[in-house]
Alpha-1,4 glucan phosphorylase (Paenibacillus enshidis), 817 residues
Amino acid sequence: MFSNKEEFKKAFRLHLVRRLGIPLAEAKADDVYKILGNMIREYVGKNWARTNLAYKERGEKHVYYFSLEFLMGRLLGNNLLNLGILNMVREGLGELGWELEAIEGQESDAGLGNGGLGRLAACFMDSLASLGYAGHGCGIRYKYGLFEQRIVDGNQVELPDDWLQKGNVWEVRRPEKRVEVFFWGRVESREENGRLIFETKNAEKIWAVPYDIPLIGYRGGNVNTLRIWSAESALDPLTGYFPSGEGYYKYLEFSRSIESISEFLYPDDSNEEGKRLRLKQQYFLCSAGLQSILRTYDKQRLAYDQLPAKVAIHINDTHPTLVIPELMRILIDVKGMGWDEAWDITSRTVSYTNHTILSEALEKWPVPMVRELLPRVYMIIEEINKRFCAMLLERYPGDERRMAEMAIIYGDQIRMANLAIVGSYSINGVAALHTEILKQREMKAFHELYPDRFNNKTNGITHRRWLMHANPELAELYKETLGEEWVRDPRKLTGLLPYRQDSSFQQRVQDIKQDNKRKLSGYILSKQGISIDPLSIFDVQVKRLHGYKRQLLNIMHIMHLYNELKDNPAKDMTPRTFIFGAKAAPGYYLAKQIIKLINNVAGAVNHDPQVRDRIKVVFLENYSVSLAELIIPAADVSEQISTAGKEASGTGNMKFMMNGALTIGTMDGANVEMHEMVGDRNMLIFGLSVEQVLEYYRTGGYSARRKSEEDERLHRLLMQMIQTGPFTSHEWEFEAVYRSLIDHNDEYFVLEDFAAYADTQAQIDQVYRNPSDWTGRAIVNMAHAGKFASDCTIRQYANEIWRIRPLNEDISSRQVY
Ligand SMILES: *Cc1c(COP(=O)(O)O)cnc(C)c1O
């Protein structure tokens, strides 16, 4: 369409004038974004069609990644990068008087996810397309994504994230591909030719309407599809369904209640809200997604026993577990299959990733709710459970404890993890440590029963977004130093190791970091009016706010530094800027209090002339993917300080590593594997191990109160939370925080790990004083980060779970019109 800058400029001008009917000179940044976005989407249309044609003709096996969350962020910059026209477009726009970064800034983040789990889905989509796999996303088109966070007087305030307000240039609505989804009703059965036939009467029918977004692979990779579903009323207002005079208003009300299914993303990935609407969302996605997959499958006229050879369905945590009973329902009730055959096909098609062992995050649904809302699906779950328990009884006669632990339905609740394990052929954890914990503890009984189903797939991040797009100068330096091979194979970044002591290479790395820090400082000044020193250490903790992630440990250490500086104003300390970014689930009171505490400490520290030149604290509003892309390249220190055993993997840790930050962290999640690569010198490890945490739980031998009495510093900090002083505006202001530590015995061992954390932070202060030493350690981290590129992760999923091969074809010569 345009192969050089002049062609691009010409096409752009033409598009703009044609589409908007205004002269180029009158266009606003927002217009430019829209025009450019539309051009790019049209531009990829051809390869989108070619990819689909190639898949079809080759009878390719497809994998469908089902996820209630896709945290995509902005797409324009990454699409341009993957298409290989980023620089051309930047230059072309520049000549027309527009700065590409400003245009990119016009795009709303697609924030259809909470945190790591949703971002993982997004990184996987990028890797699947770039490596040439037939892999697609299946999700919900929430009208409102994760809430927009404002900080008012130090408190989090949530605003609706109206991300579609200005339209979405990337999506294509496909009303002709809509499918019906049914809720409620009553199941009736009858016999026909010796077979039981089930039919649901009086069910409520709604439409699921798909919107497709192209997933553009890197440089001639495939163009796959993210299909997100929207709920629409299936009632025709003209049919007189509501016979009363108020019929029309009833109709409007009914439509609204239907549309509510795809209205909001639940802003909580760790607490089950027990909301029927959430269950509706889950079934809506599973049913719509499956129907559209099977419709495509049916066109190939293959027998159904071939389904596992042609289709892999992956569920991202237990949220889409209903694909298992729903696929059973379709195979039995619609395709007329017997139970055993349907079960064999289903359990060879579905695979499952577990993302957490936090007990409060293990999904359970009340039986009465599922039975009423999804009567036929409930019958099938009941039958799966009945057969599974019968098998257990035969295998472990008399072992009632085991039965109670493993049953899918237990005490009026349906345990989705158990259903997911029983109904899938692969169960994976997301880091080596996490998978071991699953096998040896949380899912021990299942692992004994199905040892071959369990495997590890350590999470990854796409280096195209998190290095090449977020930190282009660093990527350019790598190209100058190593050539371009690492772009296709990021493990080749180990080629940087010989340069770790090279002073001119170190200088380049330092200059780039400094540049990124200046950019972030500019943003912080303009957005939040706080002036920070770009020469100070940038110490960053950005991630969802949760007790186990221990932002509290970080802020308590900052309070302690403040105390030290007040006691001893001459204290020798490298200036440090502590940067936080975190959203708290709206109903998570303790998390919100920690946000308030951070902001109070920031207020005290930043205004105190005795300390503000050595420490600054910034809480950045509305942490999101696009903000992460600005923050992470500017970080010197990456805070990965979760209680050991609680963070399944973490992916933030990998993004920081790839951008040359040193990690201070616990032996948790993927930190363990990072540490294995870089060693003690290049990663600052502290705190309890998983074994020690478990030992405390087992013996009950931990006393937070005793700890706080033993350590003078802790006692002082605790008092500063509940007495009036520098960090509070009234007595008992942080009562909930205080009580969580003392009365509830510090579930996450903040007090226990405090001393080790403070010592390690002091070590960081020392190392930073020697720039060459510091930079050398940072380079070792950058060099080993390639192992955590999601391309590597996705190759493992493809080879070991999905058994799919990349489409190694140059699709550009295919005729599509
Ligand atoms: C990567 C990422 C996360 C996950 O961060 P963790 O530190 O692994 O919890 C959350 N939110 C956003 C916006 C991200 O980009």
Remarks:
- The chain has two domains: 59-73+109-459, 463-788.
- The longest strand covers residues 204-216.
